[in-house]
Design a protein that fits this description.
Structural class: mainly beta
Distance between the termini: 23 Å
Number of domains: 3
Helix content: 10-25%
Number of strands: 29
Oligomer: single chain
CATH class of the largest domain: Mainly Beta
Number of helices: 6
CATH architecture of the largest domain: Clam
């Protein structure tokens, strides 16, 4: 489970294991790809949002600045496709890379870039862009400054539009408080041609914007990229959620615990996890009572790596070379009990219960701090954990979960996708044993 995925990321760097997907020729590659990148705010206040949008041209040039007037001709760099990977070289020397998925999207590790497939039409609907950002607050001992911007564009599919924009700033702290709120709206006619949206307002003003959209299907809603910002269409569930009072973090915690086993979570004392990928076998032994774990990795039956950490310290043995765990690693191990299923146990969930709740398109996000570190759970409306993330010191990690099965009354994910921003690993568990003797001798190597 959780310790296993951290160990896997660490060893992937040492063993240089790569995972391949589909391939695509650079000759027919091109278009606009867009996604939303979430990152933990190091000053508190939950998650920061960054919209990532790229225009890839068939001449192997690209730009990621579709909010600029010259977006059609500006060149930010060049790209190259090798197998299933696309490599970006910026004009300033920076580099980036994405994995081309079988579905034709781009996997960035911690987020996905979806291909926009329309440039001369606007799918009918209400498109919303919402940005919330904050820093400081009670957990940091500094004044909280938060900003919220919401822009809504409504297209009727016959050439008419309306707009609604709201912006709010909140300042709160000791002996200080206040903020501002602004709102504006408009309406008129619109046209789209070659990726350019023209809004002709009834008051005589005209504005132009870069515009690309995806019509969506029965599974995915329509979405659009306007001036480099990602807009999602509204749904009945979104509107209902907007008009419903948000539950408190403690109320969310109660619901999540019920979904994942309730009191059975607190009875979790030991567990053993076995997984396999790319021919590598992984076994993780976890003793929550003695506060220790041991992860072992095998290649064709041969032990190639072991990490063991106890309350008194730890070490990593990799192909005959042993290193002592530094304080940064020990802090990471200590505080990652606050996410995943162990974060729902009564001994760890006090911080969760004091967190802040925000609504998102899937359900809720609960952000909190423990020991000065940042944590966040992402939940759907039925209180299933979609993923979680943390920033412990300089270490940041994002995890997503699926393929849930019940073991000893506890709902457990048997598939975990873990990323530290540079490397992504998908682990499919073969077996999970709960509260049984751990079949390892804890000896040092």
């Amino acid at each position: 489970m959780k310790q296993l995925r951290y160990f896997t990321l660490q060893l992937l760097l040492l063993l240089s294991i790569t995972i391949s997907t589909s391939c695509q020729s650079s000759d027919n590659f091109g278009g606009v790809y867009a996604g939303v990148k979430l990152s933990l705010n190091p000053l508190g206040g939950g998650m920061n949002r960054s919209d990532e949008v790229f225009l890839f041209r068939k001449d192997k040039t690209f730009t990621d600045q579709l909010d600029k007037k010259d977006w059609k001709t500006a060149v930010r760099g060049k790209y190259e496709i090798k197998g299933s990977e696309i490599y970006l070289l910026y004009a300033n020397g920076d580099k980036d890379q994405f994995m081309i998925t079988k579905g034709g999207n781009l996997d960035a590790g911690t987020y996905v870039l979806f291909k926009m497939d329309l440039d001369n039409s606007v799918p009918k609907g209400s498109y919303k862009f919402k940005f919330i950002n904050g820093s400081g607050g009670m957990a940091t001992g500094t004044t909280y400054v938060g900003t919220s911007t919401q822009m809504e564009l409504n297209f009727d599919g016959t050439g008419n539009f309306t707009t609604d924009r709201q912006s709010t700033t909140v300042i709160s702290g000791n002996n200080i408080g206040g903020g501002t709120n602004t709102k504006s709206d408009g309406k008129g006619k619109y046209t789209v041609k070659d990726g350019t949206l023209t809004l002709i307002y009834d008051n005589g003003n005209n504005t132009t914007h870069s515009f690309f959209a995806s019509a969506g299907n029965g599974k995915n809603k329509a979405m659009a990229v306007i001036d480099g910002s990602f807009y999602f269409t509204d749904s009945d569930n979104d509107k209902k959620e907007t008009n419903t009072k948000l539950p408190s973090a403690s109320e969310v915690l109660k619901k999540v615990r019920e979904v994942y086993g309730g009191a059975a979570l607190d009875e979790l004392k030991t567990y053993t996890v076995e997984a396999e990928f790319n021919g590598i076998k992984l076994v993780s032994y976890n003793d929550l009572v003695e506060n220790r774990f041991r992860n072992e990795m095998f290649n064709k039956g041969k032990l190639i790596a072991v990490e063991q950490i106890t309350a008194n310290g730890g070490w990593l043995w990799n192909n005959g070379i042993k290193t002592i765990a530094n304080n940064e690693r020990l802090q990471e191990v200590k505080y990652n009990d606050y996410i995943g299923l162990t974060g729902l146990q009564q001994k760890n969930n006090v911080a969760f219960a004091k967190g802040t709740v925000q609504a998102n398109k899937d359900g809720y996000a609960v952000a909190f701090q423990a020991g000065g570190h940042n944590f966040e759970y992402l939940l759907d409306r039925n209180y299933n954990i979609l993923g979680d993330s943390y920033q412990i010191g300089k270490k940041m990690q994002i995890n997503t979960y699926s393929n849930n099965k019940t073991v000893n009354g506890i709902k457990m994910p048997f598939t975990t996708v873990t990323s530290n921003g540079d490397t992504k690993v998908e682990i499919n568990y073969k077996s999970i044993e709960v509260n049984k003797p751990l079949n390892t001798n804890w000896r040092e190597l």
